[in-house]
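Morning, I've got a small favour to ask if you have a moment. I've been staring at a protein lately and its backbone has me curious. You're getting the sequence in one-letter code plus the fold written as tokens. I've dropped the whole record in just underneath, so have a look:
=====
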Amino acid sequence: MSILLIVGLIAIFYFMLIRPQQKRMRQQMELMNNLRKGDEIMTSAGIYGTITEVEEETILLEVSEDVEIRVAKSAIARTFTVREEPEEEPEEEEVAEEEEVAEEEEDAGEPEDTAGASTKEK
């Protein structure tokens, strides 16, 4: 019975402490690896700025016009720059099909049944 208690406590510690900490470390490493020139960031000290240069362990952060400071990458708390994934260009066949549908709609320019409209008019 005591072995089950010990195993249960180890499982609780793993899921409550160790696993969330590993997830946070993974997210921080991903954030540090994805920093690019022009990103707007906030440091763990609460300093906001724009990255002007990325080096191996540090970045140059422009906090005001012509004012740059060197900050450790590990001090970056979060980034505000949203990177948009490039949209996939539609294939030529899909574009051609859409153009054909649009042309057919224009050619069919006949008015729809207006019998219901005449009863609404007074």
